[in-house]
Amino acid sequence: MVSISNSITDQQNQAKKRQRHIFVFVCLWLLIFLVEFVKGGLLVTLLPVYMGHVLGLPAFAIGIAFALQYVGDNALRGPAGWLAERLGFRMIMSIGVILVLGAVFIMATEKSTGWLIFACAVMGIGSAPLWPCVMSQITSLSQADGKYGTSMSIIEIASLGGAGLGPVTVNWISGTSYQSTLWMMLVCMTVVLGIALCLPGRKKEVYALEADPESDEQLQHRSTSRITGKQRIKQYVSLIRSLHIHPLLYPALFLQSFALGILTPIITLYVISQLELTPAYFNGLLIVGGGVTALGLIPAGRLIDRFGSRFFLHIGFLLAGTALVGMASTRILFWIWIFVVGIGLSYAMILPAWNSLLAKLVPTQERGMIWGLFLTLQGSGLVIGPLVSGKLWDSISPQAPFFVSASSMFILFCIHWIMIRHRPNLR
């Protein structure tokens, strides 16, 4: 009878853990979706047009504003992940969301260039905890079954869905009033704050359905031992070295986001001024490209869990580079649609495969800090990209950013090829 009772209790505990697992995952999904919705609408559609056409600023000035946003976002990702592990994901994410709320409020109430640039920087700082916290928790949730590709695919759907629907929605409603659009974004961030308050607090919780027997002992040791800051830094350096990461991974982290960051500030201007397409037509391109990516993510994630990420990264990098060259080389609408679909397919393969590869490299100890480090290096491309983009647009041609982005994809293919030849187990 005692054994039967214990078995029932264990089953109930497992059921509660599973329910908590699902609840936290849904909260993380909604956080990513809504934050990317707001940032996508502001950075891709509203701010470039508002600052470029209404305020008459050059592309380089827009690039500076975007770069400050990405600097704030990326510079604090490592510290944000480190703090989240100690102070709780709820507190760190809530502070970040409040800062983004303040930034959107400034955008809605102030019209000067200086205030807009300052608001972009504050929004970047507030966004810093988002991805380290989410990726750290997703890695924990997926650790039991090892299905990183599927989990990353679902999260990427939230990211791409928000980033795609944000610009589309802003295109539809910003024609009547920029202010009404900004107030709508403010409401969205208020909802995000409510979701952030549902995240785990300071108390450490085990989300994997099978607990690590050493994790509680390690956590107690970390909480009770007193070490100096210098010793702590040495521990982190030693931990990073113990990962046995191929040196080429670090430039690959930069290039993976640089290829995207170089296009972010100019894509809307390029479609309107160079291709002479209407905002409604641009919405169609965004919907189709994002839809192809979203539909392909789940199948790609499952295949990645089964066969590994190697093949998908190879094909994805080559396809993305080819499609970007095509986008910059034609004005024929038929081919533009083909290349948009190609870019969508390539990112359906790249995003879950890349994140799955990184998740397998992140250790259980100091997971938030290591994810923050990876994401900081990766996000540095989003800092440099907009600055380079503006210069290329002003000094060479509007097509130049596309060619540089495509070149980054081809270089990534070469880097990944070299990495797997030296590390065959790097799947």
Q: What's the helix and strand layout?
A:
Elements: H1 2-54, H2 59-75, H3 77-87, H4 89-109, H5 113-127, H6 130-142, H7 148-173, H8 178-196, H9 215-224, H10 229-241, H11 249-261, H12 267-274, H13 279-307, H14 310-329, H15 333-361, H16 367-395, H17 400-422
In short:
The protein has 427 residues and is an all-alpha fold. Helix content is 82%, strand content 0%. It has 17 helices and no strands.
Largest sheet: none
How does the overall form come out from the CA principal axes?
Answer: globular
Cα(first) to Cα(last) distance is 47 Å
Sequence stretches where pLDDT stays below 50 over 5 or more residues: 203-225
Q: Helix tally?
A: 17
Mean pLDDT: 79
Radius of gyration: 22 Å
Tell me the helix content: over 70%
Along the chain, the helix and strand elements come as: HHHHHHHHHHHHHHHHH
Strand residue content:
under 5%
Structural class estimated from helices and strands: mainly alpha
What's the total count of β strands? Answer: 0
